[in-house]
Amino acid sequence: MARLAFAGIGNMGWPMAANLVRAGHEVAVSDLSPERVARFVSEIGGRAAHGVAEACAGAEALITILPTSREVAMVAEAAAGALPAGALFIDMTSGNPSRTREIARMLALHGIRMVDCPVSGGVPRAKTGELAIMAGGEAADLDAAEPILRAMGSSIHRCGPVGAGQAMKALNNLVSAGGFLIGIEALLIGQKFGLEPGLMVDVLNASTGMNNSTQKKFRQFVLSRRFDSGFALDLMVKDLSIALDVGKEAGVPTPLAALTRELWAAAAAHLGPGEDHTAMAKLAERLAGQVLAGGNT
């Protein structure tokens, strides 16, 4: 059992922190919403903390899962003076690798070790503790973090030094976003031809056109018109921007990635704030002049 601090109990953070509590860890929870913290402690357990510094007092590790690296940097500043020397800062945010390395250097001045461990699998796998975790950091630090990560994920992939996990996560979401776009376009073409969208999804999933979106998004969130997967459209745009930044820093031409990012950004601008990322399909439908139909989950 470890004494942990956890910052950020949003859609993903709540089930992840809950799994740490269920695994027997002593978890002090902090969030911008005191009401959400109180509800978590009431429903799940753990200890309510009034801010990051209070949560970090005496903790062996701080786990963060926040919207962007900007929020992580602010939490790191608060944690730097509160975490004991030798503690771990485990950032599970889908953040910017370069910014994360800056944060890691700052924390090192206080004797705090940092690893970046973004996740894939969405809210359903966060609830079951079966997330895929992409980890970056020194081997010894990842060894120390692994027992904590195992309570939240079923597979841990060590990608390289600090920042490598976040680079991998952004590239994963780039591939996922591209697959979603081309799949929706295929469904719209087929429907115009006379094919039933649900049938097309079944055929794609039995054929080489299968991808994560055909398996876990099209029927469940698009054809059903629910658009409530739990991962925000603006966060997808952020991750695609990070992927392009990684490509730019590496000097790799990214014409298709750039187009993919622009289409997702256009959807975010068109649909407005607060939309689920699966609502991206609405932009493709608008361009095609039709709505995908017939989707019982």
Describe the protein:
With 297 residues, the protein is an alpha/beta fold. The protein has 2 domains: 3-162, NAD(P)-binding Rossmann-like Domain (Rossmann fold); 167-288, N-(1-d-carboxylethyl)-l-norvaline Dehydrogenase, domain 2 (Orthogonal Bundle). It is built from 14 helices and 9 strands. The chain has helices spanning 13-22, 34-43, 52-56, 69-80, 97-108, 122-128, 139-149, 164-193, 197-205, 212-216, 218-223, 233-250, 255-271, 280-288; strands at 3-7, 26-30, 47-48, 61-64, 88-91, 113-116, 119-120, 131-136, 153-160. The strands form 2 sheets. A 6-stranded parallel β-sheet has the order 3-2-1-4-5-6, sandwiched between helices. A 3-stranded mixed β-sheet has the order 7-8-9. Helix 2 links the parallel strand 2 (26-30) and strand 3. Helix 8 packs parallel to helix 14 and helix 12 (233-250) runs antiparallel to helix 13. The protein is globular and about 65 Å long. The chain starts with a strand and ends in a 9-residue tail after the last helix.
Produce a short descriptive summary:
With 297 residues, this protein is of the alpha/beta class.
CATH class of the largest domain: Alpha Beta
| Total domain units | 2
Spans of at least 5 consecutive residues whose pLDDT stays below 50 are none
What is the share of helical residues?
A: 40-55%
CATH 2nd-level architecture of the largest domain: 3-Layer(aba) Sandwich
Mean pLDDT: 96
CATH topology (level 3) name of the largest domain: Rossmann fold
Biggest sheet strand order reads: 3-2-1-4-5-6
Structural class: alpha/beta
Order of helices and strands: EHEHEHEHEHEEHEHEHHHHHHH
Kindly report the name of the CATH homologous superfamily of the largest domain. NAD(P)-binding Rossmann-like Domain
Shape from CA axes?
Answer: globular
